[in-house]
Design brief:
Layout lengths: L2 E8 L5 H9 L5 E8 L9 E3 L6 H18 L7 H13 L4 E4 L2 H14 L3 E5 L11 H10 L5 E4 L2 H9 L7 E3 L18 E5 L8 H11 L7 E5 L5 H11 L5 E3 L5 H10 L2 E4 L14 H8 L3 E5 L14 E4 L4 H12 L4 H15 L2 H19 L1
Parallel strand pairs: 1-2, 1-4, 2-3, 4-5, 5-6, 6-7, 8-9, 8-11, 9-10, 11-12, 12-13
Helix pairs in contact: 7-8, 7-11, 10-12
Length: 380
């Protein structure tokens, strides 16, 4: 079985879930179709760049095709002209048997072509593509037109499938398979007492300022407590300023963006993981954050929010604590409650066991392969 992995950008080191599919799906028998290529091909894959500029002829006919595709398919993302011919040749030359579009927005662009070539196509919804992307009726209509063209749908959380369904976007062959984590690489080490970690972009959806203020409140009488932030983004400097204003700068360390191995090493020895995910004003939500799955695999006690698929991962009071979005006082109370757990090592062990049972990406990859193969065998 030879699969084409369709993704927006290749290669992005932070997209560990997509990279794992590229490297390992069906024994690594994969090629890549991407919107942009960043000059790094660590897996030595054949790849095709969809947005590599329009030829002169395609530029001339572009207005007609963009309008036609918008009217027929609800989107202008589809390849046309010489670009479509080149992608068709790539898929045929590479003898692609199935396409896995890693986001719903990628499936929009490729489903009609896949149908015309007789190549089954599946898509994987991961967060933005099933939340912010469907705020407009135009996109909702495009997704509704797309669904019958898909062979199957996967999602990292039940929340995202439910959100699609609330908007009339459904597929009869839909399955929840989390992205997962390599539990052999992400494993607990001796924990540094009162160590806290928050990982992610400094953006509205991650609410880093709430995280910092709640940590400051919860650890006011614990001078030895330390919170490490890993990530960068537009809210980094405002968050750093809050630490200075609150007089807790000595307890906070801002590391900026770091390689994935650095995040892993920090998680292994961290006692508490903080992630105050919220729905952004533009509707953007999480799916099921990979960072939380990694934290649980490392035996971190997680304090987070009742947001998107997070309650599908955290068993409240057993492996972590959850509060409502934007509840800063509640988040501070939950952090204090986590610190006060009578047997922290036992809760840490439960978090690790849960990750082993639910988020082993080796097992999840086999489940994904089985769903694809079973679907294709029924259709044959």
């Amino acid at each position: 079985m030879r699969a084409a992995i369709a993704t927006g950008e290749y290669h992005l080191g932070g997209e560990t879930f997509i990279n794992r599919h590229i490297e390992h799906l069906f024994g690594g028998n994969t090629v890549v179709v991407c919107g942009r290529f960043h000059g790094d091909n660590p897996y030595g894959k054949s790849y095709f760049v969809r947005r590599d500029g329009l030829s002169g002829r395609d530029a001339l006919v572009a207005p007609w095709w963009l309008l036609r595709n918008r009217l027929q398919h609800g989107t202008s993302r589809l390849p046309f002209g010489e670009a479509k011919d080149a992608l068709t040749k790539f898929l045929r030359d590479e003898k692609v048997d199935v396409i896995l579009a890693e986001f719903g927005t990628q499936a929009l662009a490729l489903a009609p072509l896949a149908n015309s070539l007789g190549i089954p196509i599946f898509t994987y919804f991961r967060g933005t593509d099933a939340s912010k992307a469907i705020r407009t009726e135009r996109m909702r209509a495009a997704y509704r037109k797309m669904m019958p063209r898909l062979t199957g749908v996967f999602s990292v959380s039940r929340f995202l499938l439910d959100n699609l369904e609330r908007n009339g976007i459904v597929h009869p062959n839909s399955n929840v398979i989390p992205s997962g984590v390599d539990i052999r690489k992400f494993a607990p080490q001796d924990k540094v007492p009162l160590s806290f970690l928050a990982v992610g972009r400094f953006v509205e959806k991650k609410a880093p300022r709430i995280t910092l203020r709640a940590f400051a409140d919860a650890t006011r009488d614990l001078p030895e407590a330390r919170l490490d932030f890993i990530g960068d983004g537009p809210l980094l400097e405002p968050t750093r300023a809050i630490a200075e204003d609150l007089g807790v700068a000595q307890k906070i360390r801002f590391h900026g963006a770091q390689p994935h191995n650095t995040v892993r090493d920090r998680l292994m020895s961290t006692q508490f993981f903080l992630q105050h995910s919220v729905t952004a004003r533009d509707g953007n939500t999480e799916g099921l954050p990979t960072a939380i799955q990694e934290a649980m695999a490392c035996g971190c006690i997680t304090v987070s929010t009742r947001h998107a698929g997070i309650p599908e991962a955290i068993d409240e009071g057993e492996t972590g604590f959850l509060v409502d979005e934007h509840d800063q006082a509640g988040f501070a109370a939950a952090i204090a409650k986590a610190i006060a757990v009578q047997d922290l090592s036992e809760m840490s062990r439960r978090a690790r066991s849960t990750a082993e049972a639910r988020f082993d990406n080796h097992v999840l990859l086999k489940i994904l392969e089985k769903h694809i193969l079973d679907t294709l065998s029924v259709a044959a």
